[in-house]
Design brief:
By secondary structure, the chain is an alpha+beta fold. The chain has helices at 4-18, 133-136, 149-157, 163-168, 178-187, 201-222, 230-237, 269-272; strands at residues 23-28, 51-55, 58-63, 66-71, 76-81, 96-102, 109-114, 122-126, 256-259, 264-267. A hairpin with a 6-residue loop joins strand 6 and strand 7 (109-114). The protein is elongated, with a radius of gyration of 20 Å.
């Protein structure tokens, strides 16, 4: 799933590639992709892209007073093309969800694709990004200068949930998903099942610094990369997420996994849980 660092890098890439250029055609392919109907997608055609922005994991392309807002969900991606076919794409069972052609040069633009059967990629055309419900509900952005340690502590103070779930909750903090929450907790040397409200002052500081450093380092690694290279960069930079059975790069212990019905988390027992494995079942607790 693309998370804050990848979407931030995509935003920069699209700002360089699209701003100042005119949209030719926007062609939806998957029926499920378009979440709004007024204004229609065709209202974007002929308009010049004026800005690219990010709201949490949402991409926002401005074209005058309209916004093309994209959420890539779990399996979506943006693929930049220099040779898009002129013929309209045909709906089918493939991954293509939407195609955007620039007016010139001919063939330039991007495809939105989504792998798998769970079609959650979402495209909105709105007059105000806040009209998108997911954006309206977003918590503060951790790259914002106003996201201080004190504000972070305030967000955690009333949370009686496990810290892993709190970090992933977009209404609490915008942009962090499954992968980077694993990475942040590993850097902070903290169990994913520790209750957020139970953190001490020192633990809160440690977690805040881990969050800021992990995300900012990932953004810097991704900055300036073309869209097609961002997935590989993300994977190469992960230390525990997606690395079940491998050696922890910090202590050498074996990275373990807890599986849920639709996702999994990875952690290092030595670094994060005092050497004790977490039970691999939903709502797990430390084995005694």
């Amino acid at each position: 799933m693309p998370e804050l660092p990848e979407v931030e890098a995509l935003t920069g890439f699209l700002a360089d590639s699209l701003v100042g250029r005119r949209i030719g055609r926007v062609q939806p392919v998957a029926v499920s992709v378009l979440k709004t109907y007024d204004p229609p997608l065709t209202a974007l055609e002929g308009r010049t892209v004026t800005a690219a922005a990010r709201h949490g994991k949402f991409l926002d392309l401005s074209a005058g007073d309209l916004h093309l807002v994209i959420h890539l969900a779990r399996a979506g991606w943006l693929q930049w093309r220099e040779n898009l076919p002129a013929a309209p794409p045909r709906p089918g069972k493939g991954p293509l969800a939407l195609r955007l052609h620039l007016a010139e040069p001919e063939g330039t633009g991007f495809d939105l694709t989504e792998a798998g059967t769970q079609k959650r990629l979402a495209v909105h055309v709105v007059r105000d990004p806040a009209d998108v419900p997911g954006i309206a509900r977003l918590g503060p952005d951790p790259l914002d200068a106003a996201f201080t340690r004190e504000r972070f502590a305030g967000l955690l103070g009333e949370e009686r949930r496990q810290i892993k779930g709190v970090l992933r909750d977009q209404t609490v903090i915008a942009g962090i998903g499954n992968a980077y929450s694993d990475e942040i907790l590993h850097v902070a040397r903290m169990s994913p099942f520790k209750l957020a409200a139970s953190l001490t002052e020192d633990e809160t500081t440690r977690l805040y610094e881990a969050l800021e450093n992990t995300l900012r380092e990932a953004v810097e690694r991704s900055r300036g990369l073309a869209a097609g290279k961002l997935k590989a960069e993300k994977k190469s930079g992960l230390r525990v997420h997606g690395r079940t059975g491998e050696a922890c790069p910090v202590c050498g212990d074996t990275i373990r996994e807890v599986s849920f019905h639709d996702s999994s988390l990875q952690y290092c027992p030595t670094c994060q849980t005092g050497g004790k494995p977490l039970a691999d079942r939903r709502m797990s607790r430390l084995l005694k």
